[in-house]
């Protein structure tokens, strides 16, 4: 039972870290830059 609980806790922490990393990558990524460039082209 304790092993299952600790595995669930580790899983939750890992998921939180993964979410934060994904958000950071999304903010810095070329994908975000490309999307804003496309929107600027539409306006122009």
Low-confidence stretches: none
Rg estimate, integer Å: 18 Å
Order of helices and strands: HH
Largest sheet: none
Distance between the termini: 61 Å
* Shape type: rod-shaped
Describe the structure.
The protein has helices at 2-28, 30-43. With 44 residues, the chain is mainly α. Helix content is 93%, strand content 0%. It contains two helices and no strands.
Would you spell out the secondary-structure blueprint of this structure?
Elements: H1 2-28, H2 30-43
In brief, what are we looking at here?
The chain is an all-alpha fold.
Give short descriptive properties of this protein.
mainly alpha
């Amino acid at each position: 039972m304790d092993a299952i609980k600790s595995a669930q806790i580790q899983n939750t922490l890992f998921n939180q870290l993964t979410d934060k990393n994904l958000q950071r990558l999304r903010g810095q990524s070329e994908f975000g830059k490309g999307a804003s460039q496309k929107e600027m082209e539409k306006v122009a």
